[in-house]
Fold these 2 entries.
Entry 1:
Amino acid sequence: MSIRYTFGGDEFLFAEISESMSLPAFFASMAITSKLRQLQWPGIVEICPANASFQLRFDPDILPAEQLLRQVQQLEQSLADSPQILDTRLVEIPVWYNDPWTREVGARFRQRHQDPQASDLEYAARVNGFASVDAFITAHSGSPWLVSMVGFVAGLPFMYQMVERDQQLQVPKYLSPRTATPRQTIGHGGCFACIYSVEGAGGYQMFGITPAPIYDPAQRQPYLADSMVLFRPGDLVRFKPIDQQQYQAAIQAVAEGRFALDIFPVRFSLPEFLANPEAYKQSLPGTHHAH
Amino acid sequence: MHIKVIKPGLATSVQDAGRNGYYHLGIPPSGALDQYSFRAANLLLGNAETAAVLECTLLGPQLQFSTACQIAICGAAMQPRINGQPQAVHQVLSIAAGDTLDFLPAAAGMRAYLAVSGGIDLPAVLDSRSTYALGGLGGYQGRCLQAGDILPLVAAPPTTAPVGRTLPAALQATLPRKAEVRVLPGLYAHRLCAESAARFYQDQWRVSSESDRIGYRLKGGAPLQFQPREAPFGAGADPSNIVDAGYPIGSIQVPSGKEPIILLRDAVSGGGYAMIGTVISADLDMVGQLQPNQGIMFTAVDMQQALQARQHYQAGLQQLRQALLDG
């Protein structure tokens, strides 16, 4: 893997690890950016890992551009053979699939959609070769996802499903973006899932909604006590289908500031995963193991 | 000790130098789009250089002061009026308790910075008082001002400058009719067809009305052609698509090759459109001062020229400090 470096003006160094999305590219991005965070080089202002790239914001008055480039390239070399292991966590996100709010917003913007006759879920199921919406939801919630980037807007996770490439769910974005998306909508565009952290415009297909706030400047839920943003690049996520009753109970808990998420520590090994994704995913912790 | 908002204006928000260290979570720097004028207003008044100010956009707010204080307005030529009496920009003005301040529409420039002696007294969120409206964060309740809002002021300003003190014309930000903005080509510029890559820097562009603190959208130039390719996995079918990546502040993206967008300080932090270059840091203030329909042209520069421009910009700030801190 040969990284392409390019400067974004006089304050950004942009590194494209791979033109296409892959887990090894993401791991390379995490390895370099995690190390940079530890090293705390004076003059580095922002360290932003992304799906298959990363960017740094720097102050060229403290750390000259060419010197930064040389240092990062040296770091890249030194990390080339580092173990592809991530000490992270698995977050279970309850989802009410096919909920009335995303259905209603989807219906309002049908003229911007590839298939105005179908719902987003019906369309996604069809283009991915599933016989029913339920079968699609089973695939969506049946394998964990990896948060491969946080951004666009505050706290929004992009997630890549941990399955073989031929099983990746892929759905085009809307033909032109909606002007509205409910907060906490589970979205999908290309091969990426996302959770809309705030209400607003959006072009991803809408599959459901989670009661769990994932970004809150007021930090009202216990799991947001340390940070107003829930997700970090490298988190694992499993979507857990819930029904209307469970959703309403969760919303009540959210309103009272006592909503809890199931979060498990995980040591994620990319080689072990790639060797046997199906077995590896069964070995991950979670409430799906009925004890 | 407060300001009451009678009319909010087009888009008035609390801003300061902005916040760093959260871009990887999607939280952009925010802060005054014209950092030079924001600092000039504070320094003119004798405030700390980065005290929180109001950024007033094109049509300013109408405000009532509960208490006597001093103010200074720098940036766009939005003539202030105190109780209806015209006043000067770039000057320390005296406000009496109960006075009303409003503005004429901007004759030149897009954003005026209203500094109040001592600064606006709101809590810092993630180390800054700047408003990030998309995320409902910082400033006054995480949003632009609305009628009826009450902005608390710092009770006892440390020092104040003499009323009438004026920012010398040579130290005022220039507000050109036609902007020439310098760009370092790069990022995904190699994906453009050669003709488009050159044409972008020859065309006359105009600022679209769909321009705000997140980004400036441009019209009027020729559509840009990207080289045909087989879409990389995860990138999306359009030739302007990339696997979603981080966006530098100042970067220029061209969705579907149609309308370039320059990202500013409230930027979306990343996404799936190829960027073809980045406005150099020294010229970002100027972009934020462009009105809808104003002309803009781009000049390609290399890193050395970008760094020279940066030094020049910083020398200007240093002159400003010397003139006002000692004066």
Note: Residues 23-39 of chain A form the longest helix (17 residues).
Entry 2:
Amino acid sequence: MSPGRPQVYDVIVVGGGFAGTLMAHRLGERGRRVLVLEAGVRAVNAAQGHRRAVDSYLAASAKVPGSPYPSHPAAPWPEVTDLTGASGGGYRSDGYLIQRGGLPYASGYVRANGGTGNVWTGLTPRMHPEDFRTDLFGYGRAWPIGYADLEPYYRAAEREIGVAADAEEQRARVGLPLPHGYVFPMRALPPSHLDRLMAGRLDGRCVKDPGAEDPVELRVVGTPHARNGVPNPSYEGGAGYVPVGASGQPDQHNRCVGHASCIPVCPAQAKYTPLKTQARWSPTVTLVDRAVVSRVLVDGTGRATGVEYLSYGDGDGDGHGGGVDRHRVTADVVVLAAHAVENAKLLLLSGLANRSDQVGRNLMDHPVLLAWGLMPEQVGPYRGPGSTSGLEGFRFGRARRRRAPFRIEIGNWGWVWATGGPEGDLAALLGPAGRQGRGRLRGAALRAAVRDRVGRQFALQFEMEQGADPANRITLDPGSRDALGLPRPVATYDLAPHVRDGIAAAKEVSDQIFALLGAEDHSDYAPGPGQPGHFVHHGRSYAFRGAGHGAGTHIMGDSPSTSVVDEWQRCWDHPGLYAIGCGSLPSVATSNPTLTMAALALRSAERVEGELAARDRPVALHRRTAPATTTTGDAS
Amino acid sequence: MQALDGGDGFLAKSAALTGFSEEELRATGMSQEYRAVVRERAGADRYRLFMEEEPCPDRADEGHGPQEARAELADAVIHLWYTGSWPGLDGAAPFTVSARAYAAGLVWRAFGGQPPGVGPGGFGSWAGAPGDVAAGAGAAR
Ligand SMILES: Cc1cc2nc3c(=O)[nH]c(=O)nc-3n(C[C@H](O)[C@H](O)[C@H](O)COP(=O)(O)OP(=O)(O)OC[C@H]3O[C@@H](n4cnc5c(N)ncnc54)[C@H](O)[C@@H]3O)c2cc1C
Ligand code: SF4
């Protein structure tokens, strides 16, 4: 390092969420002095913080993703309940994120230490090689790198976050070219009872997809998970793997025990969250919470020099009270890792990195068509992770040209996402409407009706790939400000015909799957309060939901004139400034995005380290430090 | 000495409404608290009327009037037992009584399940047929 330098930090990371935590970890391992500025609240004691999160969730009336975490007006976040559908179609929004699009941007995130990675489901499929080149199918954007470039970092990410999956199955059923002999850190999690029922009725059967020329063969395939299962003794050539458990401690016996509350909190701490990595940060990493970065600073040459941040309420434990202070802090490298929407907001606030006019544009998500119904028999819903298996046959191939491709998740948690869960089902059974005028349900009849109504529930979640479209974007509204006086973000969002065709195709596929299952379809897309994502396509009603996979707002590309960051997630326009996270993704792909985003963050960490090493070289002439090579070590 | 349900038949009435036995209800440990919630939210008069009614109003009439108001209150009591949340009567806001109340929700027991975040079945428990997992703490079957 460089004694005598005026600043204390080599790197400032904005955001202690998924991407920022991994970046800080890698740099800390190299002895870099990293300051992580986190807008949300950090629990003083990790174990206590965890208990509090679980208790808040259990006691919450609305068990929304943000329910375990104390919110503060200084660092608000959009919540799913901000959106309501209107009875004649259309929607209303009432929250931090202003909505001005034809359709709402329906995904939220969380601003607490650990970020949205606290509340995620923890599904970690890789992108398919084909996903990197959707331009070949006539939509979206090409990546400047391919699957092979990212492959070693996928392995590094799978190690860092602890993935349980079956390598053979991923090769054979998803077509992933995993390296010869590779196994995941942990064996695949057991499929749910529902998965098995489905496999029994669907495997090997074919359905007609209006986008595809040939019938598509169905196959229930296990999904990779970032939650603890049985370690694989053959991992890393027989070195094995030790699961990471409570408070980030190694724990050979920590397992997913089936709490079925992965969104928004895993009481067993079996699901990966960034807090587990934070617990292993080197002492050279410092996190300051309640620090809302409001501006990125650059010098006359455009080089990033630091950030300005506002700190609030450092008094009591729940983040309330106290005044607001403004600070400036400098470093050689600034890494924005504040989530796709907040990264865009920060760049726009700072007036930076926008030579291409793409900052905030290309906002993507996985718009989700939900189909829900009742199986002929009891399936045991609300047990285990939210989804353990999926149907992967609609992700690939020429059909992508005609309609958005999609991944189908089999939903283990009944109708929780569709209708709000058993409370809603009960409400529907009670009241005068309960038995259509045959008197109200009471006693044993009620108990049996609840069992019948809830115990047979399942859902299919069709997650559409949405292509990058510059018209879908985040802007700022200077006329509407948050508690710190920062302009609130505005989403302008819609679904292109390609996505709408994907949703229509998914519905046709869904109808055939329901028939094969012998299941009653209760899906309902009529406009109403619960359907802010309602739209009409070719004369039929549909409604979509947001998957929480916000992406694309600082899109990666191979030219400064058409993209915001390069393949290393460096802002083209500003040396020393990185923007990381799903905001960099040129395509949101047919897989849940976070594993890919994590792999990219680890890859970028090497580049940051490389830059710092280059900086150090002249002063290091006569005090040779550790070799400054840029391998991650574990990415063998 | 006061009976567990306050001695006024709240537990018996609740059993008739919910389809869970007095034993099962008592085992939740919530009956005292729920009785207090219902009394407070309904008001003493309405609570008395409700308690005086036939224990199992399976065929409560449709329409308005005191009969309907009682049926609404009965629905609310069922909702409370089944979910641990008071649904809010007459436009008042709904609320969850407590984390313990949520954990005691009968709606989950009705299909042999457990409330998310409470009483997990153990590693791989989700792979078994629903009947196999009654092992979860306090599953009433
Ligand atoms: C309900 C839900 C389920 C999901 N499930 C999955 C899944 O199964 N699989 C999958 O791949 N993905 C899933 N995701 C998506 C996943 O959570 C995100 O992709 C991931 O968390 C994004 O990481 P990030 O680091 O970019 O942002 P975040 O994790 O949101 O972290 C950003 C951090 O920056 C902080 N911050 C924000 N603004 C500022 C500021 N101005 N100054 C300082 N700090 C700031 C925030 O407080 C936060 O800690 C899910 C998302 C949701 C909402
Ligand atoms: S199912 Fe339960 S134990 Fe498993 S990851 Fe989800 S919340 Fe944790």
Note: Strands of chain B lie at 85-86, 95-96.
